[in-house]
Amino acid sequence: MNLNLTKSLGMLLLGIWLILTGVLTVLSVGNPIVHVLLALLAVAAGVFIVLGR
Question: What angle is formed at CA 40 by the lines to CA 17 and CA 7, rounded to 5 degrees?
Fold first, then answer.
């Protein structure tokens, strides 16, 4: 069984960011550290998408 994950690192990070944001919103997690980590993940995803990786 071969899982076909995305070849773009930026899109993979974006997918992880979307999943984490959704889960943490549903669970009402309000820790400031979590928000900073999500923001850094979003910036990294954006940079990789813009660079085309």
Answer: 50
